[in-house]
Amino acid sequence: MNKLHLLISILFLLSLVNCKSSKRAKNKKASTNKVITKTSTEKEGDGIYNSSSKSENEFSKANEIVKFAKQFKGVRYKWGGTTKAGMDCSGLVYESFRVNNIYLPRISGDMAKKGQKITLKKVQEGDLLFFKTKNRRNAINHVGLVIKSSNKTLEFIHATSSKGVIISKLSEVYWHKSFVEARRVL
């Protein structure tokens, strides 16, 4: 009986060790800056483009994402919201990309780890702008989707707690001071 008990204990301990190692592998894989797309025929790394100009396909994808996001203009703010009943900033971006088979993290701080960081001079429609508004943690806590980029104007759609889903300009003092970085995920 003691040998059977010892054998069962050893098997149990081995199963615990195996679970722990596979969990580490999952976490390590999840920390990449790659954007997940739903198309199964793509090679690893597709979905992120490391150039400052977009191809025609990328522009059309950006147009579709922006078009979807604009449907929510005027929707009230709701923390954690992802529908016309209420929307928050990361929910707006998350849903706009998800509908186009591009899967981003749900939280703005995590979104800011995806794609490629770009300069404001290279920002185009469909890129993301990240902000640190007045919060205690001094961390990225707001995201907006670029809907218009020209030499003089940079407009983005986002959800604010006071006005809901609106379009703003980066040249507005509040947003200019809170701006941290721009990123391209297309």
From TrEMBL:
One Pfam family from the record: NLPC_P60
Keywords: Hydrolase, Protease, Thiol protease
UniProt keyword Protease, yes or no: yes
Single Gene Ontology BP annotation: proteolysis
Location of the NlpC/P60 domain: 59-186
GO terms of molecular function: cysteine-type peptidase activity
Family: Belongs to the peptidase C40 family.
Protein name: NlpC/P60 family protein
